[in-house]
Amino acid sequence: MANALDPHAAIATTATGLADGRLRTADGKPLARALARSQSRARRRAFLLVLPLLAFILITFVVPIGQMLQRSFYNDGFSAHMPALGQWFDENPRGTDPDEAAWTALATDLEAAAEARTIGIVGTRINYDVPGTRSLFTSTGRQVRRGIEPPYREALLEIDEGWAEPRLWSAMRNASTPLTGNFYLAAVDRTRADDGSVVQVEERQRVYVMLFMRTFWLSLVITVITFALGFPIAHLLATLPMRKSNLLMILVLLPFWTSLLVRTTSWMVLLQQQGVINDILVWLGVIGGGQRLQMIYNQTGTIIAMTHILLPFMILPLYSVMRTINPSYVRAARSLGATSWTAFRRIYFPQTLPGLGAGALLVFILAVGYYITPALVGGSSGQLISNMIAMHMTDTLNWSMAAALAALLLGAVLLLYWVYDRMVGIDNLKLG
Amino acid sequence: MKKMLALSTALGMIATPVLADLNVLSWGGAYGNSHLEAYAKPFEAETGIKVTMSDADNPATPIKAMVEAGNVSVDVASVEYADAVRLCDEGLLEEIDPAILVTAEDGTPAAEDFIEGAVTECFVATDVYSMVLAYDASKFPDAKPSTPADFFDLERFPGKRTMRKGAKFNLELALMADGVPAAEVYEVLSTPEGVDRAFAKLETIKDDVIWWEAGAQPPQLLADGEVTMAYAFNGRIFNAAQGEGKPFEIIWDGQIYEMEGWVIPKGAQNLEEAKQFVAWTTSPAPQARAAEFISYGPPRQSAAAMVGNIEGMDQPMAPNLPTTEANMTNALGSDLDFWVDRDAELNERFNSWLAS
After folding, report:
1. I want to staple A430 with a disulfide (CB 3.0 to 4.6 A). Which of A276, A354, A384, B21 is the partner?
2. Which residue, among B90, B353, B6, B15, has the nearest Cα to B199 in the 3D structure?
3. Do A395 and B86 make contact, defined as CB atoms within 8 angstroms?
4. What are the transmembrane regions (chain A) (predicted)?
């Protein structure tokens, strides 16, 4: 018996009376298989326990976001309601002048869409590509419902000359397939020329690329400032005696628990030109009454308010890491002759990196998506890309455009996350 | 509970064949209250049809959901003009025959009595609100600003301005300040040169503008002394001036008005009563009564003269209404089709301009 010295093996083999050298349980099954089975049962049970959470995340997070992102490249507002014209586009290559068959298809589709009251949807879709055409569709629809006679070309042109526009036909051709990259093009200030090539939009219409750059730049600035302000505080919190550090901790957490809007509006009261800070400066005689500082409704206001709001997200991970750093390491370094700066730089600081990485990543990602604070205190120079997403969601109702912008933002954040992982390693992240 | 309620209502209806309840969806707040006091209560007293009022953040949203789900529990709803047109285009509303509307007391047909655009296929306006210029009277002791051009005149009327962050209203105002008569504003704005002209005019005060996002901001900015002049919704300025006694004055010259009104969702269960309600509440007397509760004007000319004092006060409401004749001399009706078509394009340009 090979395993005679193993007491468990002895028991198992003795009990089952088999001696092929494999470990068995009391009822004769191979031990390895029994173990695997019981482990898989435990895994199944554990999976069942997390199943509600998984379903919750899937239903409330993954599916809606997926559907929203789908809108950025899939919009069937035109193709679903204009089938005849779509077929004509399929049969005739780009560049074909619309013949009578095309006009007939257009008139048939318009009539059907007007009856079904879907013409508003069709017009909205084309309006994204050719501004000013939604009313062309709806007003034509109203007239077509009263009846339209062939020849359709003349009839439609009589209702509105705009139907002859080559740009409109080109846009309708593009929209006749629900899959489109146009929203992504628009999100990087590009558009399709009449011949289908990609060109930059007019200079005065360009806004998104600049806002993306500004969003990332401001987020970076805010991350650096929160680090500069948060690091000493976190260090103080971690090294003070418990009673004092608890009191300080409350001071950090209290604003954290206060509503975002309350904090933003408090900054407005403090920073505005007739506000508290300017009043004090004037009272102290630092500045004259006529030179009150403009500290809000611009980029400065956005940076100040967002830094304050995001500061706890930097302090808390740093604090939780610093608390676990053994002070004897620094003491050892000092006793071996390191200056306090060297000891900090080479011994203490590297140990805070997991907290710093987590804090910086949290602050940066939150800052990239912020929109209420910049909307309220940002003025004209403190707008971020999320304000444009909000505008497309709530004002212009162009959800495809909002989805394209959001997808680009999400992609950029994921890219940064990947870079971070390659450079620092995500295992080195400590959130608390 | 809901089932029980439905069951007991059903039983009640079998037992006593009274007139059905009419469900009206409104906005709540001071505005919803004006609907309750001036429309629902008197209508109930007059016709015996019981009216149940409920509120939504924006009644247009539940209408879309209800009609698409085929379960329409609302008979009449109060929506903004833009939403009414959109819902109508998507086939979610009943058409309202303008023939049911009540003629004015002097015999003017309803079609002529309503201001232009107040009655569409699916919509009858109940009130008019507007974007107006307002200033803090204490900041200009001598000459008072009185026109859109004064708003752009930083030398005669110094101080910061506040305007809504967006293209709508601002482009129209800029053109009017640049000397375009109200009637021609949208004609000019439809041309590329007109848009350039509007932006050029805005450029002259760009550095002195604080852009507001929420309707509550402009009265606050005026009250704080951050700005001396504001471009804001008239109701907000009126509330701050009346309710809080602030020295705010409204400039009606160049006001841009929009409408709100009734729509009937497609498949409303009490269609006849709903139409009766729409016709009765848009007759001149109830319209005038509603205007006493909130500073939104009646869209019927004959109702304007009938508006009395501000509810609970000893002052006439008329001078505070966008629709009062003296306030309408250089007024512009917001062009919905124009904005539906050009909103995205002009807002992109506006934001690009703002950021540069």
Report:
1. A354
2. B353
3. no
4. 46-66, 216-238, 245-262, 303-321, 355-377, 397-420
- Both B156 and B222 in one domain: the answer is yes
Q: How far apart are CA A358 and CA A324, in angstroms?
A: 16
Distance CA A34, CA A44 (A): 15
Q: Is A60 exposed, middle or buried (0-12, 13-18, 19+ CB in 10 A)?
A: exposed
In angstroms, the CA A424 to CA A419 distance is 8
Q: Are residues B74 and B51 in the same domain?
A: yes
Rounded to whole angstroms, the Cα distance separating A144 from A123 reads 14
Closest CA to A374 of A197, A219, A208, A193: A219
Place of tokens 């418990």: A242
Q: What is this structure's pTM?
A: 0.80
Tell me phi and psi for residue B233, to 5 degrees.
-70, 140
What CATH number does the domain containing B223 carry? 3.40.190.10
Q: Per DSSP, what are the bridge partners of residue B229?
A: B135, B161
Pairing mode, strands B248-263 and B124-136 = antiparallel
Q: B199 with B253, same domain?
A: yes
Nearest to A226 by CA among A160, A304, A152: A304
Q: Check B89 against A117: CB less than 8 A apart.
A: yes
* B345, B208: one domain: yes
- The CATH 1.10.3720.10 domain(s) of chain A lie at 208-428
- C-alpha distances (whole Å) from A150 to each of A101, A153, B170 are 11, 8, 44
Our CA-based measurement puts residue B140 at a distance from the nearest CA of chain A, in whole angstroms, of 17
Nearest neighbour of A134 by CB, restricted to B160, B224, B341: B341
Residue B86 to residue A272, Cβ atoms within 8 A:
no
DSSP calls for A310-357 = HHHHHHHHHHHHHHTS-HHHHHHHHHTT--HHHHIIIIIHHHHHHHHH
Mind giving me the DSSP string for A237-275?
HHHS-HHHHHHHHHHHHHHHHS-HHHHHHHHHHHHSTTS
Domain covering A208-428 assigned CATH 3.40.50.2300 in the classification:
no
CA distance B78 to chain A (A): 19
Q: Could you state, in chain order, the average pLDDT of each consecutive group of 10 residues for chain A (432 residues)?
A: 48 51 80 89 92 93 91 91 92 87 91 86 88 86 82 89 89 90 92 82 89 94 96 93 91 89 90 91 87 88 93 93 91 93 93 90 92 86 88 81 94 89 74 60
Q: Answer whether residue B117 shows pLDDT above 80.
A: yes
Q: Which among B262, B259, B232, B263 has a CA at the least distance from the CA of B334?
A: B259
Phi, psi values for residue B312, rounded to 5°: 80, 10
Report the number of distinct structural domains present in chain B. 2
Residue of B nearest to A275 (CA): B224
d(CA B337, CA B320): 28
Pairing outcome for strands B229-233 and B161-164: parallel
- Asked if residue B1 is part of any domain, the answer here is no
A-B interface: how many C-beta pairs under 8 angstroms? 88
Residues forming a β-bridge with A285:
none
CA angle, residues A307, B215, B333, in degrees to nearest 5? 140
Q: Give the gap in angstroms from C-alpha B293 to the nearest C-alpha of chain A.
A: 29
Q: Are strands B209-212 and B124-136 parallel, antiparallel or unpaired?
A: unpaired
Test B210 with A116 for CB contact under 8 angstroms: no
What's the pLDDT band for B20 if we cut at 50, 70, 90? low
Q: In angstroms, rounded to a whole number, what is the distance separating the alpha carbons of residues A203 and A148? A: 42
The number of angstroms, rounded, from the C-alpha of B346 to the middle of its chain's C-alpha atoms is 22
Cα–Cα distances in angstroms (integers) from residue A349 to residues A249, A356, B74, in the given order: 21, 9, 65
DSSP conformation class of B25: E
